[in-house]
Input
Amino acid sequence: MRKHIVAGNWKMNTTVPEGVELAKAVVAKAAEVPSDVKLIIAPPFTHLAPVAEVVKGTAVGLSAQNCADKTKGAYTGEVSVDMLKSVSCEYTILGHSERRQYYGETDAKLVEKIHLALAAGLSPIFCIGENLDEREAGKHFDVVTEQIKNVLYTLTPEEMANVIVAYEPVWAIGTGKTATAEQAQEIHACCRKVLAEKFGALAEEITILYGGSCKPSNAKELFAQPDIDGGLIGGAALKAEDFIGIATSF
Ligand code: PEP
Output
């Protein structure tokens, strides 16, 4: 039985006090979520230490949104995996399309990051997905296949067992346009098949999340698909009620 996960990517939203309040609201509502659904929140770096205090001893997991590709030293503005571990982070998002698009993150860079994260004991939430041009050109299966092969094929099965994959069509992120349940299912099935070619039966155990304008009104249909194991949620994760509404949609 694969783990069901709903993870909230807060992106560059909320001040620290607002973020602490949001985390408290999520924790207060977490009991509404079935026990087989794992809730994770990914606030900005500045919020991690105080939010760690809020989620401590609860079922809500703490994730970063990124990590450095170096362990320590003269890398101004970067945050290392050890720093994340030191504030009780258990997960980190890697390869979000906004990092790829605006900050030039390449698959090669992500290989370095994912190995560092795993070696530090963090579980990466590794994002893949095609942009609108690639979708319209019918290249979406090729794009996600290449992203998986370039990065995840460098892992051992033991490492892969600690990775969560998030399929996020770039054209659906923050646009209000959601992939249909059928579109999402067919590409999730493709991702699992590509993972099975390298990792065999382990692919059946890997959690693959859908991300892209997921909200309480469409989560049920998406999560009913056999290869969709939960969601990576952006905008709707900024309201505890919506986030929990999504997590109760299985
Ligand atoms: C995301 O950026 O990971 C995301 C899914 O955003 P949204 O839900 O706002 O489309």
The two ends are 14 Å apart (CA to CA).
